[in-house]
């Protein structure tokens, strides 16, 4: 599978975030999207995932015959969980809509993420680190060939970061995109794309 970005430009009002970006992303590789705060990392990630349209140019998925959304799992600080659910309810819902395989029941998932909240605790009452671990766990557990992660270790403690680094190793067959300015996250990737190279 490939994501092929051809001459993509993105702006908000009169402000260009990136221009003339040509890049091919392939399965089996991991790409760090790097740049300073406000450079456009999240915007590029969303554009590549086809959550946001470029003003000019195209993003194509090679080797995908059906709905491209079903090829992607995405986790970001701004992505949302269903706050009114408990974790068992969230997992049942994700299995019901075919986002997760049926084997991801509460026991399997909590042992995968190495975090076992009370089964009756609402997600709205999870701490920010618990929330982030659940988002990452869901994204990693989904059997989808493209993994998009924005600042994946934000709010994670050292043990949770190490869990993520290890969990990512089992995903190396996927096409992985990580938007980050954390050295440890960038170092996980095989390739790197600097937004600053696409400003003029
Ligand atoms: N929906 C929007 N409307 C207007 N401007 C936006 C919108 N989304 C992003 N921007 C602007 O686009 C630029 C890039 O934002 P983006 O969030 O992609 O940067 P980033 O590199 O991910 O930043 P950070 O490292 O701080 O998370 C910023 O100037 C931001 O204000």
UniProtKB/TrEMBL annotation:
<dbReference type="GO" id="GO:0005524">
    <property type="term" value="F:ATP binding"/>
</dbReference>
<protein>
    <submittedName>
        <fullName>ATP-binding cassette domain-containing protein</fullName>
    </submittedName>
</protein>
<keyword id="KW-0067">ATP-binding</keyword>
<feature type="domain" description="ABC transporter">
    <location>
        <begin position="3"/>
        <end position="200"/>
    </location>
</feature>
<dbReference type="InterPro" id="IPR003593">
    <property type="entry name" value="AAA+_ATPase"/>
</dbReference>
<dbReference type="InterPro" id="IPR027417">
    <property type="entry name" value="P-loop_NTPase"/>
</dbReference>
<keyword id="KW-0547">Nucleotide-binding</keyword>
<dbReference type="InterPro" id="IPR017871">
    <property type="entry name" value="ABC_transporter-like_CS"/>
</dbReference>
<dbReference type="Pfam" id="PF00005">
    <property type="entry name" value="ABC_tran"/>
</dbReference>
<keyword id="KW-0813">Transport</keyword>
<dbReference type="InterPro" id="IPR003439">
    <property type="entry name" value="ABC_transporter-like_ATP-bd"/>
</dbReference>
<dbReference type="InterPro" id="IPR051782">
    <property type="entry name" value="ABC_Transporter_VariousFunc"/>
</dbReference>
């Amino acid at each position: 599978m490939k994501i092929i970005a051809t001459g993509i430009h993105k702006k908000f009002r009169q402000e260009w975030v990136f221009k003339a970006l040509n890049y091919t992303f392939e399965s089996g590789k991991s790409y760090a999207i790097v740049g300073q705060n406000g450079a456009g990392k999240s915007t590029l990630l969303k554009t590549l995932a086809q959550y946001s349209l470029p003003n000019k140019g195209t993003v194509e998925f090679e080797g995908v015959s059906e709905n491209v959304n079903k090829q992607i799992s995405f986790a970001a600080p701004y992505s949302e969980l269903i706050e009114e659910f408990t974790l068992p309810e969230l997992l049942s819902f994700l299995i019901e809509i075919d986002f997760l395989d049926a084997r991801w029941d509460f026991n399997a998932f909590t042992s995968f993420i190495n975090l076992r909240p009370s089964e009756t605790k609402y997600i709205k009452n999870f701490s920010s680190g618990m929330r982030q671990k659940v988002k990452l766990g869901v994204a990693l557990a989904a059997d989808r060939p493209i993994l998009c992660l924005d600042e994946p270790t934000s709010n994670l403690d050292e043990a949770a970061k190490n869990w993520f680094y290890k969990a990512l190793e089992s995903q190396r067959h996927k096409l992985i995109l990580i938007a980050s300015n954390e050295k440890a996250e960038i170092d996980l990737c095989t390739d790197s794309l600097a937004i600053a190279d696409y400003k003029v």
